[in-house]
Amino acid sequence: MSVRPRTIAVIAPLRHPIREPHAGGLEAMVWDRVRMLRARGHRVLLCAVAGSQFQEDGPAEFRLPAVVWPDERDATDSTFPPGHLERAVPALEAALDFIRRHADTIDLVDNHSLHPQPLTWADRLGVPMVTTLHTPPLPRLVPAARAAEHHGRLLAVSAYTAAEWREHGVEAAVLPNAVDAGRWHLGAGGRDLVWFGRIVPEKGVHLAVRAARLTGRTLRIAGRVGDVPYFREQIRPYLGDGVDYLGPLGQPALADLVGGSACALVTPLWQEPFGLVVAEALATGTPVAAFDIGGIGEVAGSAPAVRLVRTGDAIALAEAAEQLATERGHDPALRLGTRTAALARFSLEHRAAELETVFDMAGAGAWV
């Protein structure tokens, strides 16, 4: 199919701005998506929390209310402050109504919201919608996704996630997340271990701390604190003495950190839908020791630079990390091979062409 420039409305989640340093993998993925589509000649209108990048020339209706906690010590990624949804959902409705009223100037909606509202509008927007399922089947999303199957197109970030949704009566094609080869550059490795991502209980960074101490290597942690009580109780007491917290880092600094490490620890304790940090680490040449849960094994594939262990087993994780760090943490040829194999599967440039084909099919009312 031919690809033509389109006007695309991208709907981001309601919680965090789409900007660097990224709040998490989902926000990083949307940021990359917008930047990539614009670079390929498309006009992109980003509907996202106020303070996001890429909103300079967009409609005012596309600036959604920011999340403001009365007391930041209570902030978590699993709840909203009192009254936020009462402001945010009507604002999202106004954005959707803007799309409906300007359907003659917008070619497609690229939906990444974790709220069901965009899906419930799929049959009345007058614009084709492609929705990416980034999470397990959330109860609030399942009914809306079932209904929207007849009015939009559904994608899942992994075959694992697609299978989970299928068990709830929702069919989705698989289009994995991707990494930008130009921004996740090859690193030289190092001696230290690295953990990066959202610091929340389900990401299990406390087990990475435990594993790192068993190896005797320094662990450097980078990421936004998404659950303040968890960080205060489970992470802060162990900082120092070989555990360093660097805070949230912009992508260039994060790529330098990951690429300068001997091994990345990936420790999810929930059914991880994809595991973008695995692909990002491998793109820098850094091997990965990870818990085998959710879509992590799918992202790992048959890569020799990945060792998967039983979820929650810090001892096995430490052994895997030490083996990878010793064998692959410094070897330039092995690191280059790791990167090359990762980009063959997860290159953003390759994924862009696939995405444009999906958009063409959605615009033509076709789907396979």
Strand and helix map with partners:
Layout: E1 7-11, H1 25-39, E2 43-49, E3 63-64, H2 84-101, E4 108-111, H3 117-120, E5 129-133, H4 142-148, E6 153-156, H5 159-166, E7 173-174, E8 193-196, H6 205-215, E9 219-222, H7 228-235, E10 243-245, H8 251-259, E11 263-266, H9 276-283, E12 288-291, H10 296-300, E13 306-309, H11 314-328, H12 332-346, H13 348-363
Parallel strand pairs: 1-2, 1-4, 2-3, 4-5, 5-6, 6-7, 8-9, 8-11, 9-10, 11-12, 12-13
Helix pairs in contact: 6-11
InterPro entries: Glyco_trans_4-like_N (IPR028098), Glycosyltransferase_grp1 (IPR050194)
Pfam families: Glyco_trans_1_4, Glyco_transf_4
Domain Glycosyltransferase subfamily 4-like N-terminal: 24-182
Low-confidence stretches are none
Task: List how many beta strands DSSP finds.
Answer: 13
Helix content: 25-40%
Mean pLDDT: 93
* Strand content range: 5-15%
CATH fold-level label of the largest domain: Rossmann fold
Number of separate domains: 2
The CATH architecture term of the largest domain is 3-Layer(aba) Sandwich
